[in-house]
Design a protein that fits this description.
alpha/beta, Rossmann fold, 5-stranded parallel β-sheet, 6 helices, about 35% helix
Length: about 160
């Protein structure tokens, strides 16, 4: 597995950041957030790939393309957080850390936003930090991937026949 690539996934409507409900999501654009995430990854010696789509299947395909190739995934699933079961299943097939990311805190909003189908798979969750959450989520993903890489696989240890 490539250990030095983070895949950042952005779900539906995130392409409208900067103009969509700025009182909730702020005025920074998705490009602004991706740049901050990329800077964080670069500072830690990693690369960052980004994929945004308003279609769940495109994000599922992106996860599939990352299997065995990227070291970690950061996902801001947008509304797919609450009902994106095919995205959930794709992330479950990924063998590295997944970090769930939200600009706002869904748990403090409408009741229907409180369920996350991604959270059970996530090694970390970053929510309610606005744009500052992007570099934080990337750092957490890299930290988790590095920790996993340092943990020896019990099947790899040479057994002592004595």
């Amino acid at each position: 597995m490539a250990r030095h690539v983070v895949l950042l996934l952005s779900g539906p409507n995130l392409n409208l950041l900067g103009t969509r409900e700025p009182e909730i999501y702020g005025t920074d654009t998705l490009l602004d957030h991706v740049r901050a995430a990329r800077r964080a990854a670069t500072e830690l010696g990693w690369d960052l790939e980004h994929r945004q789509s308003n279609h769940e299947g495109d994000l599922v395909d992106a996860v599939h393309s990352g299997i065995g190739r990227v070291g970690a995934i950061v996902v801001n699933p947008g509304a797919l957080t609450h009902y994106g079961w095919s995205l959930h299943d794709a992330l479950a097939a990924f063998d590295g850390p997944v970090v769930e990311l939200h600009l706002s805190e869904p748990r403090e909003r409408e009741s229907w936003r409180r369920l996350s189908v991604v959270e059970p798979l996530a090694s970390a969750r970053v929510a309610g930090d606005g744009g500052a959450g992007y570099p934080r989520a990337v750092a957490l993903a890299i930290e988790a991937a590095a920790a996993a890489a340092e943990t020896p696989d019990p099947g790899d240890e040479a057994s002592d026949p004595s």
